[in-house]
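Reviewer 2 asked us to include a model.

Predict the structure of this chain.
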Amino acid sequence: MRLWRRLLILCWLWFLATAVGVAFRGIVNPPTTAFMQQHKLYLRAHGDVHAHIAYRWVEYRHIAPAMRLAVVASEDQDFPFHHGFDWAAIDKALHHNEYSHRIRGASTISQQTAKNLWLWPGRSYFRKAVEAYFTALMELEWPKQRILETYLNIAQFDDNVFGVDAAAQHLFHESPARLTPPQAALLAASLPAPDRFNVKDPSAYLLRRQSWILNQMRMLGDDYLHGIETAAQH
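Predicted model (C-alpha cells):
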C-alpha cells in the first residue's frame, strides 16, 4: 500500500508541476525550446562549436495573416475546430502505415507545438503518449490563437532558423508582418522537412507544394481563423 500511495503522490505532483508549467508558458514566451537545444547539441557534436540558432519571438499581431493561414492550410486544416487531435487523420495514418513502408504522420499543429516546445524527436509509443498529455494540457489551458502563435514562433523553417521572424528575415529579408501569400506558402511548404528543402532555391516539388497551399488558402478564405482570433480577444 505504501508503494501505491507513493506512486499516486508522485503522479499527482507530476500533474501539478506540468499543469502549472504549461499554464506559465501560455503567458510567458519561451526563450528557447527542447528542439532548439537538441539541434544546437547536434551541431556542436558535429564540429560546429560556435553553433548559433536564429530565433526571435514575434507577437501574433505582427505576423502576416497570410502566414497564419498558410500553416493551417498546409499542416492542419481542422485546427480551429478540434481539441488537439484529428482522430480521422490518425485512423487514416494507422491504416496507411499498416500496409506501407513509408510512415505517414497525423500530428496536429497542437501536437507539433507540444513536441517542439518540450519533447524530443522519435516515434516511440512512450514519447507519443507524453506528447498527447502535453497537447491535452495546452488545449485545456491555452486559447487556440496562443497555440498557433507559439507554433509559428518555434517551428524550424531552415538550417538553424527557428520561428517566422527569423525565417522572414533570413530567407526573404522581410519582416514577418509583410510576408506575401506566395512567400508564406513557400515557408509553410518547407515545414515537413526544413533540413531537406531549400526555400531560397526551391525544387519543383516544393513549388508544387507551394501552389497547392495557395489554392487551399483561397478555398479556406481570409476569414478562416476569425473565430479563434475573436475568442482570444475576450
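The mean pLDDT is 89. The radius of gyration is 18 Å. We have added this to the supplementary material.
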